[in-house]
Design a protein that fits this description.
Elements: E1 2-6, E2 12-16, H1 19-23, H2 40-51, H3 59-90, H4 107-114, H5 118-158, H6 169-182, H7 192-220, H8 235-253, H9 256-263, H10 273-303, H11 321-357, H12 362-365, E3 367-370, E4 378-381, H13 382-401, H14 405-432, H15 440-473
Transmembrane segments: 43-63, 69-89, 135-154, 191-214, 280-301, 321-342, 385-405, 411-431, 443-469
Protein name: Amino acid transporter transmembrane domain-containing protein
GO molecular function: symporter activity
């Protein structure tokens, strides 16, 4: 017997099993796939490594916009909403019966099973736009970190006398060139080693940022910052900054898109996968919030209202310069891997669609086997080569036109928060549990969704306003930092 297992990008892995193994259910789950082995601890580890990333770097700036009272409160509110809506989403992994119902393997499949029609297309559009935005944001962030390494060494050599101005374009082009090479790795499942390296790097630079913040507070012998946050700006700037901060915090908590894929790694009942995933979500949100509060609050305590947009590249820290270099090198390595993790599903979607649309095209479907000494033959697909290269070039060009880390992060967080974290989970849960319209629970869920929609609109407006303000003083391809 042959058992086919779908990867996250719709590629198939094939398993050959004996008749004895087929009879013995200990080898297989109820859907015929090889038995899942995940636990609440492995699931929470997946979530934590996926969530703790570049979003942590802007949290000190976000708290500076909101102040000592509103900043932590907003962070706790986002943590609660993310946890609550994730619990609702966990219930939708299986259709109907939480133990024996049909499984859904991806976020899109859950939306298709419960909502169907136009909402599936809308969900796909938002997800893929989000993935494109992440690619742009990561290109900008990596260039800023590469510049930070060069500048910290320049400051060290000149004793702080040289302003060390430079242009970010060459660093974005370098990042894009690396991504063109990595993008030719055909399948998502061949990137497992890159994901592990990226996860280690994200913890490395986040921990260094936290350590430097604590060190700065000890050095200053006081907690900087004010109750209301930044107050030496115009009312309009204060408003836009506060709204953009909401988007930055939302971005730091976004993991709904991958929750179902993670839940699909959990071993079968008892207990039910939803029960295990709820526990994993609680663990991961508590750990992540604790870590975010430390990074954001100590960053703000260290620099107060002058907290930089990116904690490790805003040059609040100058020494030890070698530790800053390690942290920024870790950011670059993490973002190289993270870029691929986020782009591979989009690559796969376009390639699968094109293959179905043009089944007789050699350009789209033919693989040319190229021998590589010491390795298996590399299957070169011309369409994959051209399409992925063009995609990386386009995202790099857009990054060069909009090199604003905070604005991009805020916009991404704002756009993705309500639909992916709140709206779809709430609507699917209502259908899954057959909650009567206008019942108390239905009204409460709709009020939550409506409130989060207002926050998303406000954060989007704030981020767009921030982009417009930055573009007024920015000259594409010419501005020197």
């Amino acid at each position: 017997m042959v058992v086919e297992k779908n990867g996250s990008n719709n590629h198939h892995q094939t398993f050959y099993v004996s008749i004895d193994q087929q009879i013995d259910s200990k080898f297989f789950d109820d859907d015929g796939r090889v038995k899942r082995t995940g636990t609440s601890w492995t699931a929470s580890a997946h979530v934590i490594t996926a969530v703790i990333g570049s979003g942590v770097l802007s949290l000190a700036w976000a708290i500076a916009q909101l102040g000592w009272i509103a900043g932590p409160i907003v962070m706790f509110l986002f943590a609660w909403v993310t946890y609550y809506t994730s619990v609702l989403l966990c219930e939708c992994y299986r259709n109907g019966d939480p133990v024996n119902g049909k499984r859904n393997y991806t976020y899109m499949e859950v939306v298709h099973s419960n909502l169907g029609g136009f909402q599936v297309q809308l969900c796909g559009l938002i997800q893929y736009l989000n993935l494109v935005g992440v690619a742009i944001g990561y290109t900008v962030a990596s260039a800023i970190s590469m510049m930070a390494i060069v500048r910290s060494n320049c400051f060290h050599r000149s004793g702080g006398k040289d302003p060390c101005h430079m242009n970010s374009n060459i660093y974005m082009i370098a990042f894009g060139a690396v991504q063109i090479i990595f993008s030719q790795i055909p399948d998502f499942d061949q990137l497992w080693w890159l994901s592990i390296v990226a996860a280690v790097m994200s913890f490395t630079y986040s921990t260094i940022g936290l350590g430097l913040g604590i060190g700065k507070v000890i050095e200053n012998k006081k907690f900087a910052g004010t109750i209301t946050g930044i107050n030496d700006v115009t009312k309009a700037q204060k408003t836009w900054g506060s709204l953009q901060a909401l988007g930055d915090i939302a971005f730091a908590y976004s993991f709904s898109m991958i929750l179902i894929e993670i839940q699909d790694t959990i071993k079968a009942p008892p207990p039910s996968e939803s029960k295990t995933m709820k526990k994993a979500t609680l663990i991961s949100v508590i750990v992540t919030t604790f870590f975010y509060m430390l990074c954001g609050c100590f960053g703000y305590a260290a620099f107060g209202n002058s907290s930089p947009g990116n904690l490790l590249t805003g040059f609040g820290f100058y020494n030890p310069f070698w530790l800053l270099d390690i942290a920024n090198a870790a950011i670059v390595i993490h973002l190289i891997g993270a870029y691929q993790v986020y782009c591979q599903p989009l690559f796969a979607f376009v390639e699968n669609y094109t293959a179905k649309r043009f089944p007789d095209s050699d350009f789209v479907n033919k693989n040319v086997k190229i021998p590589i000494p010491g390795l298996d033959r590399y299957k070169l697909n011309l369409f994959r080569l051209v399409w992925r290269t063009v995609y990386v070039i386009l995202t790099t060009l857009i990054s060069m036109l909009l090199p604003f880390f905070n604005d991009i992060v805020g916009l991404l967080g704002a756009i993705g928060f309500w639909p992916l974290t709140v709206y779809f989970p709430v609507e699917m849960y209502i259908i899954q549990k057959k909650i009567p319209k206008w019942s108390t629970k239905w009204i409460c869920l709709q009020l939550l969704s409506g409130a989060c929609l207002i926050i998303t609109i406000a954060a989007t407006i704030g981020s767009i306003a921030g982009l417009i303000l930055d573009l007024k003083v920015f000259k594409p391809f010419k501005t020197i930092y």
